[in-house]
Design brief:
This protein is an alpha+beta fold. It folds into three domains: about 110 residues, Acyl-CoA dehydrogenase/oxidase, N-terminal domain (Butyryl-Coa Dehydrogenase, subunit A, domain 1, Orthogonal Bundle), CATH 1.10.540.10; about 100 residues, Butyryl-CoA Dehydrogenase, subunit A, domain 2, CATH 2.40.110.10; about 150 residues, Up-down Bundle (Butyryl-CoA Dehydrogenase, subunit A, domain 3). The protein is built from ten helices and nine strands. The strands form three sheets. It has a four-stranded antiparallel β-sheet with strand order 2-3-7-6, with helices on one face. It has a three-stranded mixed β-sheet with strand order 1-4-5, with helices on one face. It has a two-stranded antiparallel sheet with strand order 8-9. β8 and β9 form a beta hairpin. α3 runs antiparallel to α4 and α6 packs antiparallel against α7. It is globular, with a radius of gyration of 21 Å. The N and C termini lie far apart (about 55 Å).
Length: about 400
């Protein structure tokens, strides 16, 4: 490669737009993924096992609650958090999902809406990976309509009695605490439900063909008595869970770039090595056009997420902007994974190569934290001023 050649995975030299700290984060997490994540992810995916031994390493690098100041958290900026997600998902969406849930869906609401006692108890332990959290919002019948939640809580003396269920919950069966959103007579509230509370049960969902290296489960609440000190005092509306989703969606916009880069990298290598009709398939117009289209989509996604991160760090982020990037970047990554799988031909269905694993994972990523249609309608509402949901 000549001195002025472009990086195939970074055609617009996004790297040069990063600060020294952001570069250090990207490179450090990238080495961790290359050395410790990628070598174990194929087997973890095949065995439907979460590589729990990586949690201590992830925590040791300061990747849990990385955007929070204090409480043993790293206090990084939003672009750094995005780069963490990008590099982790280059390894596997399952590990990035674990970090997203712990950071954006559990630690964020405790930090934003919790009491001082709740912050002191949970945030340092979660930052160190000594306590694991999960986020209970989605319900079996609800999906894209969180306002239709059936889980409810009522006051009983100084406590609350919680009943209901949640579905498709990452970290469900390994969580020490679940941030559960429930309807009350005083609005929608967040409850920190602790493992071992009577009436609280978590069950793992088996037979998944996506996110197999991640733990997904269901949560059940049968007259669970939750003390008042476990209620998040800072919010009593859908703003609480929706603000958490905005944080997580932001990280996803970066994460899927990593998955797409992994697929393009393998497609490039394969196309240069695979010889058909007397020449490498990378020498054909058909393959070059497809590879170029992958690079175009990745470049567009990189520019969207970087701009999004700068807006977030400046305090100017609008949730609609996150929806646009989540929609665009997830669709781009899934299309890239599918096309890379096809370029590999028969080899593409083998776990020896990464595209089929990323392709299967991305089917979940494009669905959770708001389906593609939900984000299209969020943007449509912004453009027209009309709410077309429902």
């Amino acid at each position: 490669m000549s001195a002025n050649a472009l990086d195939p995975l970074d055609l617009y030299d996004i790297r040069s737009e990063l600060s020294e700290e952001e570069l250090m984060v990207r490179d450090t997490v990238g080495r961790f993924v290359d050395d410790q994540v990628i070598p174990v992810m194929r087997e973890a995916f095949e065995k439907h096992e979460f590589p729990a031994h990586l949690v201590a390493e992830v925590a040791g690098l300061g990747l849990l609650g990385s955007s929070i100041e204090g409480y043993d958290c790293a206090g990084m900026n939003s672009v750094s958090y995005g780069l963490i997600c990008q590099e982790l998902e280059r390894g596997d969406s399952g590990l990035r999902s674990f970090v997203s849930v712990q950071s954006s869906l559990v630690m964020f609401p405790i930090h934003a809406y919790g009491s001082d006692e709740q912050k002191d108890r949970w945030l340092p332990a979660m930052a160190r990976g000594e306590a694991i959290g999960c986020f209970g919002l989605t319900e079996p019948h609800g999906g894209s309509d969180p306002g239709n939640m059936k889980t409810h809580a009522r006051r009983d003396g100084g406590d609350w009695i919680l009943n209901g269920s949640k579905m498709w919950i990452t970290n469900a069966t390994i969580a020490d605490a679940a941030v559960v959103w429930a309807r009350t007579d005083e609005g929608i509230k967040g409850f920190i439900v602790e493992k071992g509370m009577p009436g609280f049960e978590a069950q793992e969902i088996e037979n998944k063909f996506s996110l197999r290296a991640s733990i997904t489960g269901a949560l059940f609440f049968d007259n669970v008595r939750v003390p008042q000190e476990n209620v998040l005092p800072g919010v009593s509306s859908l703003k609480g869970p929706l603000s958490c989703l905005t944080q997580a969606r932001y990280g996803i916009t970066w994460g899927v770039i990593g998955a797409a880069q992994a697929c393009l990298s393998e497609a490039l290598d394969y196309a240069q090595d695979r010889v058909l009709f007397g020449k490498p398939i990378s020498h054909t117009q058909t393959i070059q056009v497809r590879l170029a289209d992958m690079a175009r989509r990745i470049t567009s996604a990189q520019l969207l997420s970087l701009r999004l991160g700068r807006l977030k760090d400046a305090g100017k982020l609008n949730p609609t902007q996150v929806s646009l990037a989540k929609w665009n970047n997830c669709r781009a990554a899934l299309d890239i994974a599918r096309d890379a799988r096809d370029i590999l031909g028969g080899a593409g269905i083998s776990a020896e190569y990464v595209p089929v694993r990323h392709m299967l994972n991305l089917e979940s990523v494009i669905t959770y934290e708001g389906t593609e249609t939900v984000h299209q309608l969020v943007v449509g509402k912004e453009l027209t001023g009309v709410n077309a949901f429902g």
